[in-house]
Each structure stands twice: as structure tokens, then as C-alpha cells.
Write a structure and sequence with these properties.
mainly beta, 239 residues, 13-stranded antiparallel β-sheet, 4 helices, 44% strand, globular
């Protein structure tokens, strides 16, 4: 394992402790320009996400209407009623984004796919980088906000649904993440700079409770606007 990845995992609570949990639940307050661009403003502004850490499953409830919830697994998404009845589903959801740009509207199942894999990625990070098949190596440091951040480059195998095959983590002197860069493949490869802060301890694991995502230039600089996505989390529970 890369030495920087070992430092990151230990700072966040340690891989052994993380592997003792199977699920995380969290309350989300979300905002930013993305949801309106996709024709889904307000749908997931205030919701609860459940992520199954080992199976790649995620669910949002409510999904817009309080009587609806979403269920994501990498090869299928579904919208269910509170009674478990199927409302709508989409098989091989990734393929449905072919030809999309940042401005292309989404269907409800497409929103469920994006929100599902994004939160599954975020709530599993950085421990996701220690999964079999994931490659990670340290690259040159980055100077920002008066700090020098070490950086970890990550390459994901095709069976992990996430924003892009290659991503970069920026790490502070304390071993905690400061920024997470990726290109959102399902929106035409839109580059994002995802800032991570306000850590709390949950059952011995460090979780950030504030996430802010901005556009990123080809040179790696983040732009001050627009705010693409904001995520604030509370009531985080590991089980």
C-alpha cells in the first residue's frame, strides 16, 4: 500500500476499525447550481442517505415526495413507494448518459444513479482507496490556502461506479482530506474541485460534514463560482 494512503487511512480512524462497519446513515442538506441545471431543483434538498459499505448499495429517502425513495446499485436504479412498490427503474443506468453535457436534463432514475454513486463514493472515502483493484500513488504536492497539501492519485477499476476512473485527493499535514478532484464522466467530463472540511468523530471514524464543489480549470485551479453542489451532513451513524 502507498505510504501516503496508509497515513490518510490512519488519520481517518484506521482501516481495521472501518471494516468493522457495514452501513452509514446521514442526514443531508444539499444545494448548488447542478440540481436546477438538471431540472431537479429541490428534489434532494433535505433527505437522508443510507450507504451499504460492502455491497455498493445506496438509498435516498425521501426522494422528492416523502412517499418515495431511491435504491441504487451500479447496474440498476429504482424509485420505490414507501410500501416497496416499484414506481420506476433503469437498468444499465450509466449507458443512459451517453452524449450528455452539464446542461442535459436528467430523469428521476438518472438523478437516483448520480446521487447514489456520488454519496456512496463520498461516504466510503478514503477507505474506498484500499479496496482490491484500486491503484493509488503519491504525486507532486499542491500549494493552496497558505498550505502545502500532499496529493494521492487514484485509479478505479471499471466495476466501481464513481465520477471518473482517475481522481486526486489533496491531504493536509494532519492526514485529513482537504480537496477531492475528479471529472464527472456522466456530464461530459465536467472537472470538479470538491472541498472537504468540518470533521467530526463518529464511532472512531473521522467524517467531514461540509462539502463544497466548484469548477476546476485545466491547470487545476478551482473557480470561485458557480457553486456546483453543496452538501452539509449531520446525524451520521455507523453500524
Amino acid at each position: 500500500m502507498d505510504a501516503l494512503l496508509e497515513t490518510i487511512l490512519e488519520a481517518h480512524g484506521g482501516l481495521t476499525r472501518w471494516q468493522s462497519f457495514a452501513r452509514v446513515d446521514a442526514h443531508l442538506i444539499q444545494g448548488g447550481a447542478l440540481w436546477g441545471l438538471k431540472g431537479k431543483a429541490g428534489l434532494l434538498d433535505d433527505t437522508t442517505v443510507t450507504v451499504e459499505l460492502r455491497t455498493g448499495r445506496a438509498s435516498h429517502h425521501p426522494f422528492g415526495d416523502p412517499r418515495r425513495l431511491s435504491v441504487f446499485v451500479p447496474d440498476r436504479v429504482a424509485i420505490l413507494g414507501s410500501d416497496g412498490a416499484l414506481i420506476e427503474s433503469l437498468t444499465d443506468p450509466r449507458a443512459s448518459f451517453a452524449g450528455h453535457s452539464l446542461e442535459t436534463p436528467w430523469t428521476d432514475p438518472q438523478l437516483a444513479y448520480f446521487a447514489g454513486y456520488a454519496m456512496w463514493t463520498y461516504l466510503n472515502t478514503p477507505f474506498l482507496m484500499a479496496r482490491p483493484g484500486v491503484e493509488a500513488w503519491e504525486i507532486e504536492p499542491w500549494r493552496e490556502k497558505g498550505e502545502t497539501w500532499r496529493r494521492l492519485r487514484v485509479r478505479f477499476p471499471a466495476d466501481i461506479a464513481t465520477h471518473s476512473a482517475e481522481q486526486t485527493l489533496h491531504v493536509g499535514e494532519d492526514g485529513l482530506l482537504r480537496r477531492h478532484d475528479y471529472d464527472v464522466a456522466i456530464t461530459g467530463g465536467t472537472p470538479g474541485a470538491h472541498y472537504i472540511s468540518d470533521y467530526i468523530d463518529v464511532s472512531g471514524i473521522k467524517f467531514p460534514t461540509r462539502r463544497r464543489i466548484f469548477p476546476r480549470t485545466p491547470e487545476g485551479q478551482s473557480l470561485a463560482e458557480p457553486l456546483v453542489v453543496s452538501i452539509d451532513l449531520d446525524n451520521i451513524v455507523l453500524s
